[in-house]
Amino acid sequence: ISLDTGVLTIQADDDKFIHLDEHTTIQLIATGTSAHSKTSIELIEGGITSDIRNKLSADSTYEVNTPNSAMSVRGTVFYTYVYEIDGVKYTRTCCFEGEVTSRLVYKNGTYSVEEVPIIKGKEVIIYEDGHTTD
Which of 26, 47, 81, 99 has its CA 20 to 30 A from that of 67? Predict the structure, then answer.
């Protein structure tokens, strides 16, 4: 999905909403039922707000992946924005409700072992300059 102008809201399930900003491109993969759902969003550019109204079941997953990070949640509201300045790629994630966990994704496609929690009222900015992801 590529949105050039305006805003777009996708209802991914009865209680999951994805709000896209202008100039946003995502790939959305959603399978299963509300009791056993698997939602994966590849945020290629731009920004989205994920609004998961109810805690996910133990068998459900919801992930937002960017070029340099992966966020997973159980039930929360958070904003993720991907942008580039002078060749450096950034991912900014702000948590408005609940908690999000974030892992770094390195240039070679591997994931960091460490998960960093982002709690309500906090944010994290991740950068990747072609040599380092931090």
Answer: 99
What is d(CA 17, CA 30) in angstroms, rounded to the nearest whole number?
12
Measure the CA–CA gap between 34 and 18, rounded to whole angstroms. 15
**Which H or E run includes 25?**
strand 24-32
The residue length of the chain stands at: 134
Per-residue pLDDT tens digits for 41-63: 999 999 999 999 888 888 889 99
Amino acid at 117: P
Q: Which amino acid is at 10?
A: I
Tokens of 122: 């906090």
What are the residues whose beta carbons fall under 8 Å from the beta carbon of 115, sequence distance 6 or more?
A: 101, 102, 103
Could you identify the residue written with the tokens 């904003």? 79
- Residues 128 and 89: beta-carbon distance below 8 Å: yes
- Helical spans, DSSP H, in the chain: none
Beta-bridge partner residues of 131? none
Handedness of CA 23, 29, 31, 35 (dihedral sign): negative
Over pLDDT 70: what percentage of the chain?
99
CB 103 within 8 A of CB 112: yes
